[in-house]
């Protein structure tokens, strides 16, 4: 059982590499962009994160929850097509309403923001399918290809002076290989019989859809809470203050990111696959004990990040590191909540998740 959990942990490695490099590039952007433009960059990504959730409507959670309960590949293909349809419709809605959604600072980049949200949403869905199929080699190669394309594009643009438009375009195009393979997968496997199967078995798709919709308010609440502070700072202070705030916010939440990757790619699939076995409880307890090491890293991160900020960046960014203790306290409680959410999802009582997230 423990060997199985160790095998699952291999899937976290490419994601940690990919997002770790993205995290470092975040501070490269802080260095090369003007402070105000770096603030607009962070506001843009607040939109991307929220739009990504709106486009998918948490259906990836339902896909994960019921994946191992259905062995028929036609079921999985049907659910992927349903999610593709939902993303396509919601993307058109976002495009039609873009004039009312985006604030003035971000409005010039609205089409790119929607494009990044669509590309990342579909690509992450395909990577999730590969992860649940336990295909470690393609999962590793595709994740590394994403970050390799991103680095190549960023430093190609940087030779002539990097702009926010080029950064957002790079974020969209980094998913081009995964997006193409996802579309190819759907094209090669979808026939008229696929749609007949969906029609004849529509009742089977109610569970993941209802499960996902129950989670949706909590996800929206969490993301809104995660983004609203940046917009409040922008309204009452300035876009430059958004940049300074985001700089420290990102430093404090790097640990939460690492932990979330481990829970999403290792802990949750492992539990869903083995939860009916008696030995699973013992293994879960061991895993949770291993995760307590992250609390030690919290304090080390606080010390390192403060020194890092003062040594490499402008005084305005470094001064903001005094807010790190508050950010780290929020991380502590966010980490604790992840275990409760996994257990609630397992019991199919996803309607409790919004209460946890909104509280």
Q: How many H/I helices?
A: 18
Gap from first CA to last CA: 35 Å
Principal-axis shape: globular
Which runs of at least 5 residues are low in confidence (pLDDT < 50)? none
Helix/strand order: HHHHHHHHHHHHHHHHHH
Calculate the mean pLDDT score and round it: 78
The major sheet is characterized as: none
What is the gyration radius calculated from CA atoms? 21 Å
> Which oligomeric form is depicted?
single chain
- Content of β-strand: under 5%
**Could you tell me the number of beta strands?**
0
The secondary-structure class comes to mainly alpha
Question: How would you explain this protein's 3D organization?
Answer:
83% of the residues lie in helices and 0% in strands. The longest helix has 36 residues.
Give a short synopsis of this structure.
With 359 residues, the protein is mainly alpha-helical. It has 18 helices and no strands. It is globular, with a radius of gyration of 21 Å.
Pick out its properties.
single chain, 359 residues, mainly alpha, globular
Reconstruct the topology from this structure.
Layout: H1 2-9, H2 12-32, H3 35-56, H4 59-65, H5 73-96, H6 98-101, H7 110-132, H8 136-158, H9 164-173, H10 176-189, H11 192-200, H12 206-236, H13 239-274, H14 279-291, H15 293-312, H16 315-319, H17 324-346, H18 353-358
């Amino acid at each position: 059982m423990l060997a199985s959990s160790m095998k699952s942990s291999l899937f976290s490695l490419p994601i940690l590499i990919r997002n770790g490099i993205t995290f470092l590039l975040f501070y490269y952007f802080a260095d090369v962009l003007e402070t105000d433009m770096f603030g607009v960059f962070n506001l843009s990504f607040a939109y991307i994160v929220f739009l990504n959730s709106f486009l998918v409507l948490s259906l990836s959670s339902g896909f994960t929850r019921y994946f191992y309960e259905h062995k028929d590949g036609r079921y999985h293909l049907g659910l992927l097509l349903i999610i593709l349809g939902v993303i396509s419709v919601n993307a058109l809605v976002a495009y039609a309403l873009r004039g009312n959604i985006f604030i003035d600072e971000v409005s010039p980049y609205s089409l790119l923001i929607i494009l990044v949200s669509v590309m990342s949403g579909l690509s992450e869905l395909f990577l999730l399918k590969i992860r649940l199929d336990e295909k470690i080699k393609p999962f590793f190669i595709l994740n590394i290809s994403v970050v390799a394309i991103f680095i190549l594009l960023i430093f190609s643009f940087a030779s002539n002076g990097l702009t926010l438009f080029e950064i957002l375009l790079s974020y969209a195009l980094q998913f081009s290989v995964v997006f193409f393979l996802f579309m190819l997968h759907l094209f090669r496997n979808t026939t008229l019989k696929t749609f007949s199967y969906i029609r004849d078995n529509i009742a089977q798709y109610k569970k993941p859809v209802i499960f996902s919709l129950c989670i949706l308010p909590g996800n929206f609440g969490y993301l809104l809470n995660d983004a609203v502070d940046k917009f409040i700072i922008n309204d009452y202070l300035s876009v430059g203050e958004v940049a300074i705030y985001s700089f420290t916010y990102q430093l404090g939440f790097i640990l939460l990111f690492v932990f979330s990757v481990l829970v999403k790619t290792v802990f949750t699939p492992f539990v869903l696959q083995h939860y009916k076995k008696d030995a699973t409880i013992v293994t879960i307890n061991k895993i949770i004990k291993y995760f307590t090491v992250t609390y030690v890293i919290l304090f080390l991160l606080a010390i390192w990040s403060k020194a890092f900020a003062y040594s490499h960046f402008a005084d305005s960014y470094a001064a903001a590191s005094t807010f790190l203790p508050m950010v780290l306290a929020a991380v502590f409680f966010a980490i604790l909540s992840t275990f409760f959410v996994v257990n609630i999802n397992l019991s199919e009582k996803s309607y409790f998740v919004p209460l946890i997230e909104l509280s």
